[in-house]
Amino acid sequence: MFERSDESLIKQALKGKKSAWVSLVKRYESGIYNYAYRMVNHPDDAMDLMQDIFIAVYRNLSTFRGDSPFKGWLFKIAHYRCIEYYRKKRPLQSIDDVPEQVDESQDACLDTGLTQGQQSQALHQAMQRLAFNQKIMVEMKFFQQFTFEEIAQQLGISTNTAKSRLYSALDKLKDYLEVEDVAA
After folding, report:
1. What sequence ranges are listed for the domain RNA polymerase sigma-70 region (predicted)?
2. What is the CATH number for 5?
3. Do 127 and 138 form a contact (C-beta atoms < 8 A)?
4. Which bin fits 156, alpha (ψ -120 to 50), beta or left (φ > 0)?
């Protein structure tokens, strides 16, 4: 069966066809939920954030011009909603000054015999320790597979800044994971 393009679904949704909107949501809901979860590190907050993101997308769907892919536009909205989440949670603190989050209830030891699930958990915990602007870079580049140019456009930064933030984040992740490995 042929899969309809995002553009086709958007046109149909704008005409009031509910099934087209539902198809768009189903196409991206797991990606948006996972993105939100990795940003906020709490499943209920991630679910609320995902719903907020799709409500914002629905309300603004008529403003989508199609100059860039829908997925990029969607994740730009998701990015701004994550920033709003942090601002509401810590109204007096700069987003770049958010302290590193450590979920001590799920300590994972890193040794050569780790399962893929344990490695994934260790990576998730290490990502939670990153500053928000670094976490977003890892998320967009590796989990959402955006190019540096797409990331720069979505975040309103230069391509070189995007690269610099990503490489800095990767260095920190490497350090965090090595410390975990030594502690094990």
Report:
1. 24-90
2. 1.10.1740.10
3. yes
4. left
Same domain, 183 and 126: yes
Task: Please give the torsion angle defined by the CA atoms of residues 147, 148, 150 and 152, in that order, rounded to the nearest 10 degrees.
Answer: 170
Residue 2 lies in a domain: yes
Query: SS3 for 65?
Result: coil
Total tally of structural domains belonging to the chain: 2
The answer on 108 and 52 residing in a single domain is no
Phi, psi of 90 (to 5 degrees): -135, 75
Walk along the chain (184 residues) and give the pLDDT tens digit of each residue. Answer: 567 899 999 999 999 999 999 999 999 999 999 999 988 888 999 999 999 999 999 999 999 988 888 999 999 999 889 888 878 875 544 445 444 444 443 343 334 444 566 667 777 788 888 888 888 888 888 888 889 998 888 888 999 999 999 999 999 888 888 876 655 5
Q: Quick check: pTM over 0.85?
A: no
Structural domain range at position 2: 1-92
- CA 165 – CA 148 distance, rounded (Å): 11
Within 10 Å of residue 68's Cβ, how many Cβ atoms? 13
